[in-house]
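Researcher: Please translate sequence to structure tokens.
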Amino acid sequence: MQAQATGPASDTGHLLEGADFSDTYGIAVEEPDLDAIAAARHMMARTPRWVAGLLVVRNLAVAPFGLRGAPPERTSTPERMGFFPVISQTPERVVLGFDDRHLDFRVVVDVMGDGATRRVMATTLVRTHNLFGRGYLKAVLPFHRMIVPAMLRRVARP
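Model: Translation complete:
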């Protein structure tokens, strides 16, 4: 099953006012009982190995600049999914993210639809604060466009 670039599931702009970047990917899943909390856990709990390798390189590259590295251990708790703090969660929507010196970041996971097929949407929002944040965003976007669809495919194959 392929994840496709699409428009946002619903109004997400208020989740990070002034965002400089936004994109959304979606995938249809044959799981009638799936909710956003389970979908976000599937996405964040199991990262493909190549993504984990990219995160190691990223952490090494940003350490000299004093940026946060991903925690060494991925966890799923009410406060955290994978590397990301949970900002809010309902059965229909989970918002993950953090604010840092160079940018603020949100991942919004929405699950919609009734019946056997559910639509899972992952929206990324980024608000940059400075030149470094804009450069960082530009550097990671090509990888982001590969990573998000790969993580959405994990929801289709729990």
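Researcher: Any highlights?
Model: The chain has a mean pLDDT of 85.
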